[in-house]
Amino acid sequence: MKSSHDPSVTSWALNELSPAERTAFEEELKKNPNLLAEAQTTQNFCHFVQNHLRDERASLTDAQRARLKAAASGNVQSI
Question: How many helices (H) and strands (E) does the chain have?
């Protein structure tokens, strides 16, 4: 499926549209099955990310974060 690159898709998926914008966008979704599929896929992805990345167990430890910063600055030490 070709992406529309419409920022409204992500805004809709994240529930960031105003009520009027949401209504207008959802009317467009009813008319455009490709846009609907893209919007649903984006919404599913956003929900997945929100649910899994907010889990503290999925967060980096301070040591992991420090190693990443060191690697990014070129000061890589062996693990």
Answer: 4, 0
